[in-house]
Structures are given as structure tokens and as C-alpha cells.
Prior knowledge:
This protein has 213 residues and is α+β, with helices and mostly antiparallel strands. The chain has a domain at 61-202: 2-Layer Sandwich (hypothetical protein PF0899 fold). 58% of the residues lie in helices and 12% in strands. The protein has a 4-stranded mixed sheet with strand order 4-3-5-6. A two-stranded antiparallel sheet has the order 1-2. Strand 5 (170-173) and strand 6 form a beta hairpin. The chain is rod-shaped and about 125 Å long. The two termini are 95 Å apart.
Amino acid sequence: MVQSSKHTFEPMFTKTGATVPSASNRRKVLTDDDVAAAHAAGFSEGQQAELVKVERATSEALRAIANMMQMMLGRLNAEAQSLRHDATEVALAAARSVAHAALDTYGADRVEAIVTSAVAHLRDTPRLVVRVSPELAETIEERLIGCAREAGFTGEIAVRPDPHAQSGDCTLDWGDGRIVHDRAGALAAIETSAQNWLASADAEGLSLDITQS
């Protein structure tokens, strides 16, 4: 009959003598709470990592949208500027046409208004020479004398034809000074006003810096 003997575990020995196994060498037994805490920690870390990814993707998408809008606004500004220039040219062409037609039709009325305004400041002038287009010179003298008398002018009114003048043009001479009103000047004033408006509109433009906070 084989006899068995109880096995005994001897202490571990090193060069310095017997040692007792440390806690770090022992297998740790995890409880349910430990497992739950580890699971929660891992889930939280994974969730934070996903949030970082989502925020990064959102930031990149917004940056791409801003760049696209920047390009679109740049094109819109260029198109708006082109439209303003085209509209101004059309408006100027219309204004020139209307001005020519008005001066051709109401040239006498314009000359009368100019003389009436001038003689109000020239009441003590002894003689005023009014130069107008040849077709107006034949018919407007009595009309101008009448409006000058109504304005208080007592001096002499002399109307002279100017072969270079167009209907509505008027030059006033009184020895010490001269006033010139011509069609070219009227059209130039209209064009200057339009160009000033256009320059102001172009300077304002559209705000394109949408990416700056």
C-alpha cells in the first residue's frame, strides 16, 4: 500500500533569506463594485474621446462653410459693383437724353429763370447783355425785359445771338463780371453727381470678413 504524505510549502528563499510574497505578487480579486467602476471609467473616457472628435469635425465643417460664404460674398460684391456701374451708365444715358430734350423744349424758360435770378443781385447795374442761341434771340428779348423789371432791375437789357450757343445756353455780361450757363456744364454736373454717388457706393461695398470673431 502506497502511503501519501501531506505536501508542505516551504518559504521562498533569496540570497538575503526567506521572503513573504508581497501584495503586488498576489492575484487581486475584483468585486462587482470594482468592475462597475472600471466600466464606468472606460465608458466616460470613450465618451469624452468621441465628443472631442465631434467638436473637431464640427469646427472643420463650420470653417469650410465660412470659407464658402466668403467666396460667395466676394462674388456677390463684384457682381453688385458691376451692376452699380451698369445702372449708373444707363441712368446717365437717360439723364443726358432727358436733359437734351428738356433744354430743347424749355430753353427759353431756363434762360428766363437764369436772368431773373441774376438781376435780383444786379439791380444797380446800368446795362446787362444776354447772349443766347440765335433762335431764342429773335423771340425772347421782350420776355427777359419784362421779368427783369418785375425783379426790380431798371438798367438796360440787350439780347445778342451767340452762334455757338444751344437752346437753353445763356451768357450774362455786365462789364464787371460774367455768368455762363451752357448745356455742357449742366450735363457735366449731372455726370459728376452720378460718379460721386458711384464712388461712395463702391467704397462702402459689402463686408466680407465673416471669419473673424
